[in-house]
Amino acid sequence: MIHLASIFQGGLAPDIVDSSLLATAPSSENASMVLAGVLLSLVFIYLASKLGGELSRLVDLPPVLGELVAGVVVGVSALHLLVFPETGAVAGDSVVMTILQKIAGLNPESIQEVFTAQSEVISVLAEIGVIILLFEIGLESDLRELQKVGSRAAVVAVVGVVAPFVAGTVGLVLVFGMPTIPAVFAGAALTATSIGITSKVLSELGQLKSTEGQIIVGAAVIDDVLGIIVLAVVASLAKTGEVDVVNLIYLIISATAFLLGSIFLGKFFNKSFVAIAEKLQTRGKLVIPALIFAFSMAFLANAIHLEAILGAFAAGLVLDETDKRKELDQQVIPIADILVPIFFVSVGARVDLSVLNPTSADNRQGLVIAAFLIVVAIIGKLITGWAIVGKEPINRLAIGIGMIPRGEVGLVFAGIGAASGVLDKPLQAAIIIMVILTTFVAPPLLRFAFKAESELVEEPVAVDS
Amino acid sequence: MIHLASIFQGGLAPDIVDSSLLATAPSSENASMVLAGVLLSLVFIYLASKLGGELSRLVDLPPVLGELVAGVVVGVSALHLLVFPETGAVAGDSVVMTILQKIAGLNPESIQEVFTAQSEVISVLAEIGVIILLFEIGLESDLRELQKVGSRAAVVAVVGVVAPFVAGTVGLVLVFGMPTIPAVFAGAALTATSIGITSKVLSELGQLKSTEGQIIVGAAVIDDVLGIIVLAVVASLAKTGEVDVVNLIYLIISATAFLLGSIFLGKFFNKSFVAIAEKLQTRGKLVIPALIFAFSMAFLANAIHLEAILGAFAAGLVLDETDKRKELDQQVIPIADILVPIFFVSVGARVDLSVLNPTSADNRQGLVIAAFLIVVAIIGKLITGWAIVGKEPINRLAIGIGMIPRGEVGLVFAGIGAASGVLDKPLQAAIIIMVILTTFVAPPLLRFAFKAESELVEEPVAVDS
Questions:
Q1: Which residues of chain B register pLDDT less than 50?
Q2: For A437-454, how does the pLDDT look when each residue is reduced to its tens digit (9 = 90+)?
Q3: pLDDT on residue A423
Q4: Best interface-test mutation with A: which of B3, B19, B81 has the largest number of A CBs within 10 A?
Q5: Does the domain formed by A135-339+356-454 have CATH 1.20.1530.20?
Q6: Could A305 and B15 be called an inter-chain contact, meaning their C-beta atoms sit closer than 8 Å?
Q7: Closest CA in chain B for residue A127
Q8: A50 to B231: CB separation less than 8 angstroms, yes or no
Q9: Which CATH number applies to B132-336+355-454?
Q10: Cα B376 to the center of its chain, rounded Å
Q11: ipTM here
């Protein structure tokens, strides 16, 4: 009877029915609470994304910037409506959990379990959101167009990885007198562009299919792969003091094989996909096979130690080659609409603005290093536009700006560096500040770069009329 | 340095980049593995749902039956591609986890953590799936039509709760010589129709908007509320030996207030919803406000100890009254297409067919009781069609059959009964078998009942020609 009593401690029995579905374990009430927590979190996320996105649009900025800022507002830095255990939060820090606690009167252990599970669900939903985003970007990209800009994208990617890495590492050693290993680590954190943020902004500006847009997306994909290789090198350096060459070769081969394999697959698989989709009769006959393919590719990319989003992007590229493209595009839109905001609001919510507080000495030192890293991060990517040879008219400024946002990979470097003890507090804070600033500064600048160009183009017309 | 080493135990560093997004905690590799597990599980779920649904359609049965059966095949009873900790499974029982283990070489503790988190995510996705399903059903239902059939639906619901409850309880006491409390518990488990399964079949048959369809949905909603009240009564009986009257009154008042409140809300809220949706300009301008409303109502229903799906259904009913209905309908379809199958496949996957194995003595005794419960469960609901007074032509057989599937609530009774020690093994097994059989037998019978009717209608035409 003890079990039953503990289940019913909330005072009202029917909690158990709510949402535990077929659960027969005594943790049914927790399962119901996890669902309640997820629902409430999604309501806050959607409210934030719409408020932020619409306000951003009113002042003529890309909506995704508003979603990121709204994420910061509801996140760990301000309202605490959406907090995550990885940033050090416990159940008591979460407004959602406080509300659930008031409703159900759970004991502290249960509420901590519910908080962990709820955060896990929201995190995975955010990750599926960015997977769907990259799948959609792949669907909107054209493989032939990408191949056309391939060499230029590769130049942009390589310059955009090498320049900030070298300038950052050398500068930290020479100017700040830092030891080599932390300097290399911080330099590496400057390398990888956040493909999610940059491609979303491009899509919002209607520039995804422009030559500049395709170069940026292609370069972001390549530099993501380069970033993973750099991380492997730096991590093995930090761990053993030398580079694990076997691992490095494995990684380079598997990444190349995956990307080339996807393109090859695109040539013969798209016909069988259409044939299968046309035979199906039940609901979801197009979108379910498409997601089976996208999620399989994402899993495969993850399994061979690339990023899941690269697999989803490749899947989108392959399916873009089929006759079903437009129909699929239509159906993916609402799915992306409900999943992608979870990603951007979560990114904002995890940003801890307390690293900007200058009253702490660590932060002050961090702010100085951050100023240096930000300059290197911005200039190191800005120049990539001018690294493209050839005299064709191309918006080099837009390409350079498009590569600026660092986002998630930079924070992963900071996290690993902190966990391994390679990075001290000020350097870690500096990397986080660099990531925040490059992420938030790029969307409005990118809009400006494309707008400046279109005004230049429009001006002669105005003179004519 | 220990932290870094343990992160990299997989042998290959870049795991950490994959999917941990902005995580700065050292559990990044686990986060990446949880995502990988969820992706692989979704691939298996989608494959099963499409294979099962299409095969079912080929042999002229409702697709949802195929999805349920495919769920059983991939679940704990056969392939173990999709198993849940609540059914007693550990990481080693899960094929998905075995695959991840081979890829990443995690230690046993990590893999168990990953398994728990992955199962939690899939469970919540399944729950969100049934919430979206009921939201869609609400959107497709017409509040005025439902009000028209209201009194008939209420009769069907009350008869369908009272008849099996009384017959089941009395039969178990008189025929099987069972003590009162377990008999009452088992009788209560016979009461609540699974609104998810029955409304999905109706929708597939194109009968959701027929008078019969609306009566069944209306009755299922009412009997869900009655089921929750019965559960509260039975649970407090089992716990203290007497009925908690205060709780009971609270529950009846809150359920009534919620349902009437939703209808009232529908009259004035729908205009403001349209006004808001028309002002928005960014992506998801219709579907995001709709989901904010649906998830808020689901959360509210959950918070006042009703089922979350009732809130989603009410939200769908309210939004069905707006001018945006058709556009919203269109956009909800792909979202439902990708989420609803997760629910049905999971329901199938959790069914443990080993309770049907007659070599165990408990099972043999259970099978005898089950045979009795199944007869009561089917007849108790079948008669509801004939409980409707009036002489208008109405497919009474279809209504009775539509109320047969028990699904999740019945299993919740079995789970609570087992946890509290009220139900012994044979009785518990009997309830589970009753739920399985009523769930699987209803879809083809319902199809038959509607088909028989349409053939009767068509025959005179055939004679004429």
A1: 1-26, 458-465
A2: 888 888 889 888 888 766
A3: 81
A4: B19
A5: yes
A6: yes
A7: B19
A8: no
A9: 1.20.1530.20
A10: 22
A11: 0.85
